[in-house]
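TA notes, week 10

Several of you asked for a full example with nothing omitted. So below is the full record: structure tokens for the whole chain, then the designed sequence directly under it. When grading your own attempts, check the secondary structure regions first.
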């Protein structure tokens, strides 16, 4: 058994200062130590996939990150591990507990995942080893992880068994109290206005996102492809998978780089898929995060099947989650207002109704994902 301090401080020496995750009783002392230390950063995510994507965003911003999760929630992280971290080549250290470990008594819901945890990491091409349980094993284990991540720029995992880390008391709340935050709200829907198409909205967003101080992230599907078609700039990232994770990736970048304005272009389908991240953004993000949701009420790139986006008031969701600005409308000038409002604290949000469909002969980006990311990181002077 080790003390949480031993591992965390050894990891700090290698530059790991950001932690994200969803708790597990095996991880309790580990998480408590990180939360108690004011010089470390912790994000309590709504689910393991968002935790992984937020850590990936922090890594893009130059802040080495550790993702912590129970293995029963590893399934929630499969999509961002395989279609974000792997495809874009983003290194994060993953610590997964081993509930349901064969031969160790545990709850029935952990039985199957306990049997397949190691094989699941193998299938996802994530190298792993058992989390060190002796003090003298910590530095060599971290060195192996660090060497792999530096060379391959992909995740490395530790699997933590029961009783590995000694108890650690929790002395503070990791979540800022935002109950007194004032929210500016404006909703304006003109029934006579011509419906906005995505291309026009993207062009107007580009007008407000100069290359020198902004990062623009477009959700997967037609949004990323159409943004590329409008203008391919070095400050842009086109999500090609991990649907729903654009906002959590943007949160990670915004936390690591408060000097940049990070703009996330989301869709109604993607927003619905990871709606828990609205709450995480509201609690943790500053006013350098701009979250725009383009709602055409369909999954456009897969045949325009309807979402339930027409029945959801995303602006009220953002308001309830603690965003400092919540705009909603169906006219293009809402984008101008979003970028000209002066906000003192908290993230800003706009829900914009648009038409379904896309431009003719819509191209796919001709730059592969990891090259897009490399270009972006060079542009913002960042490195893993």
């Amino acid at each position: 058994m080790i003390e949480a301090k031993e591992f965390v401080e050894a990891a700090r020496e290698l530059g790991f200062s950001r932690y994200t995750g969803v708790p597990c009783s095996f991880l309790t002392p580990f998480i408590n130590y990180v939360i108690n230390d004011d010089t470390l950063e912790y994000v309590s995510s709504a689910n393991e996939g968002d935790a992984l994507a937020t850590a990936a965003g922090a890594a893009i911003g130059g802040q080495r990150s550790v993702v912590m999760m129970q293995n029963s929630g590893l399934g929630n992280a499969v999509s961002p591990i395989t279609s974000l971290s792997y495809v874009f080549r983003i290194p994060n250290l993953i610590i997964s507990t081993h509930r349901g470990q064969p031969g160790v008594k545990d709850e029935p819901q952990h039985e199957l995942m306990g049997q397949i945890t190691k094989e699941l990491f193998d299938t996802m091409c994530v190298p792993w080893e058992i989390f060190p349980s002796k003090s003298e094993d910590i530095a060599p284990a971290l060195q192996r992880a660090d060497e792999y991540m530096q060379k391959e720029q992909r995740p490395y995992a530790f699997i933590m068994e029961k009783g590995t880390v000694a108890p650690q008391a929790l002395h503070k709340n990791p979540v800022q109290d935002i109950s007194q935050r004032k929210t500016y709200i404006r909703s304006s829907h003109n029934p006579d206005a011509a419906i906005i198409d995505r291309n026009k909205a993207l062009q107007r967003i580009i007008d407000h996102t100069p290359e020198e101080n902004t990062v623009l992230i477009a959700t997967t599907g037609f949004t990323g492809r159409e943004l590329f078609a409008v203008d391919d700039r070095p400050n842009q990232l086109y999500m090609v998978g991990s649907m729903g994770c654009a906002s959590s990736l943007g949160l990670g970048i915004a936390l690591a780089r408060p000097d940049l304005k990070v703009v996330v272009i989301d869709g109604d389908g993607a927003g619905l898929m990871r709606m828990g991240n609205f709450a995480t953004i509201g609690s943790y993000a500053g006013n350098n995060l701009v979250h725009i949701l383009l709602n055409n009420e369909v999954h456009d790139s897969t045949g325009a099947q309807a979402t339930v986006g027409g029945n959801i008031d995303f602006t009220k969701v953002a308001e309830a989650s603690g965003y400092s600005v919540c705009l909603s409308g169906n006219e293009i000038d809402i984008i101008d207002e979003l970028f000209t409002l002066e906000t003192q604290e908290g993230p800003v949000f706009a829900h914009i109704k648009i038409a379904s469909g896309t431009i003719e002969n819509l191209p796919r980006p001709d730059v592969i994902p990891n090259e897009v990311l490399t270009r972006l990181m060079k542009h913002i002077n960042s490195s893993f």
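The first strand starts at residue 16 and ends at 21. Use that as a sanity check on your answer.
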